[in-house]
Every structure is written in structure tokens, then in C-alpha cells.
Amino acid sequence: MQKFDAIRPFYDSEVNETLKKLIHHPMMKSLMNFSFPEVADELWQGQLSKTHSIRDFQCNFIYQSVQKVLEKSSDGLSTSGFEKLEKGEAYLFISNHRDILLDTTLLNASLFEHGLVMTASAIGDNLVKKPFLMDLAKLNRNFLVQRGLSPREMLQSSKTLSEYIGHLLTHESRSVWIAQREGRTKDGNDATNPGILKMLAMGSDEENLMDYFKKIKIVPVSISYEYDPTDALKMPQILAEANNEVYVKQENEDFMTILSGALGPKKHIHIHIGDVLNDAIDIIAAENDNANKQIQAIAQAIDDSILPNYKLWPTNYIAYDIINNSKTFAEYYTEDQKSVFERRMEKRIDAANPVALQGFLNMYANPVVNSLKYNNAVQS
Fold first, then answer.
1. Domain locations in the chain?
2. Which of 123, 206, 233, 249 is within CB 3.0–4.6 Å of 142 for a Cys-Cys bond?
3. Which CATH number is associated with domain 75-306?
4. CA contacts within 13 A on the Cβ side of 340
């Protein structure tokens, strides 16, 4: 379908030619040497040259890359809720967003391990300006969200994007991942932008919008990292916004963030799969027939799944107690863990700057604040 050519990933028929083009690229060599440190270049090059589908590339190569990332930079990935999903079914995963690439690659690795349909995943075209990164993204079944457009262009782009997402879900039986709002959360305060749902609605092929939202099977996803490997990299934007300044990214900033996200220390990671929202949508439809209010209610239903199911770590409780000068959650961490957190904070930011200090602590403390809205006693 040519109208999607500007944003779609590669077709399987395009995979082999692209891989052969990239086999001798230095970044592909770095990726493969990282993923297969004991394997001679000739062997992985031979296997790549015989790879003809995105699934084979993901399962035979990228899955191993993910395992190496987890092995070298984390204390492991845990999951919950995947047993609720049905094999062969396509779902629209709407997730909180912490890391540019890891959020989706970890979800897909988990879907693969559970024998479930892996996703096509949204990625901003600003993140893949380098030709190699663009090719790699399209080899991983990423589709492009176009940024920096005029209002008129943005409207048309949103319509094309929504139609493509609907096409993937309903015609190709392909699951889709999108973030609950544009860009990664910088302050740990996850919230769904109703504009995302309005964009999705533009691709509806149903007379009743709520029937369409049921048809695409929305599943909220909560992902949490004990340590955000890019926490310090988010500081310049937080400081600029505190001074009412427009934040301008440095050249190669996104690429360095991708590398830091992959290789920086994370300790524990958890992904929770929420319930398909169809029952909630039935209730929303019965209570209100105003489309805008229905969309607001679905956004709230997504938050009502993501926030209480966000796995809290000692770092979250430590930050909350530091901000509030309390020992409210002291039972959930040790003094050693608190010392490690404080040393890390002092190394990564100017702790003498109150804006930087508050911004850094908020990243970790706000998930506790949000969880408290749902639970009288927060669970570790």
C-alpha cells in the first residue's frame, strides 16, 4: 500500500537486500560483536546474508542483543500479565515511556518468549536521521512518526499514521506499540495524552468510535527501571523548562541517549501487561455518548492501569523519603541502598542546584506519589 511507504518498516522482500548492504557497516559490526562476542565475523555475516524476514532478524539476532544488554547492564527483567494475552491475537499496546529503544525491544523479547505476536512500534523520525539507524529501525519493524511538521502537514500525517496502525491491527493481525504521549517521561509522572487516542480515532472504520476502540484491543503496559540509565541526560531539558527557556537538543544527543539507555546500569526492570480495556470501554460507552468525554475516559482508564501496576523499586521509595524528609517507606530499602542512590545522584547531577536536585528526585519519587493515589499502602 503505497500511501504508507513514507512511514512503514521494510517488507520481508526488502530485508535481505538491506542486510547485505549493511553487513560491512562498522555499526553493524559493533552490534554483532557485542551480541556474539565469541563468534567470528564470517559466521554472523554468513547468517545475516541468508536472512530474509524481519522475524528471523529479530529472533536470531536482535533477541540475542537484548539478552546481552540485560546481562551486561541489569540485574534482570521480570514480567507479569502476559498470560492474559492470547496467542495469534493482535493488540494495541499503549505504554508509559522511559527509554527510546529499550521499552519496545524488551516488550518484544517478552512477547517472543511467551509465543505471542510481536509488535510494530512507533518511533519519531527525528531519532533515526542517520541512514544506518533508519535501516535498523525498519528492520525491527518500527514505523515512523513524523515530527517538525506544519499544522496542516501534521493533520495529514496523523491521519496516515492512524490508518496505518488500524491496517496493521485489523488487516495484518500485527500488534502495535505506541507511547501514551509524545516523548519520554522526564519527571516520572506518567499520564496518557488524549490526543493519542484522537489520532487513533482518525483511522476508525466503524460507525461507532467505541466499537473501533474495542476492535483494536487496547492493552496498557507499565514498564519500570530501578535505575533510569538516562536520568542525568534528561536534566538539561528539565533545567531549561524551569527557566522558561526553549530546549534545543545537541547534535547526536538522541544517539547518545540510545547508547546510554542500552549500556547504562539499570539494575532491575519490570514489564506489566494490563487487562484489555474492552470491558472498561463498554462501561464508558454506556455512561456517556459524547466522543470527547469518551476519549478522556479511555485515557483515564489507561492511567488507571499503568500507574497502580508500575513496579516500584527501592530507588523510588528512597527518592520519596528524601524529598519529604521522612522515613515513610524505610522498610522497603536498606541504608546501603540509600547510600548508593545518593552517591549516584551526586556523581550525575549538581546536587547543589535545587532545580536539578528536585528534578532528579522527582523522576524516581513520582511513581510512588501516583501509586499512593490508588493504594493506601504501596506494595513493593
1. 75-306, 314-372
2. 123
3. 3.40.1130.10
4. 11
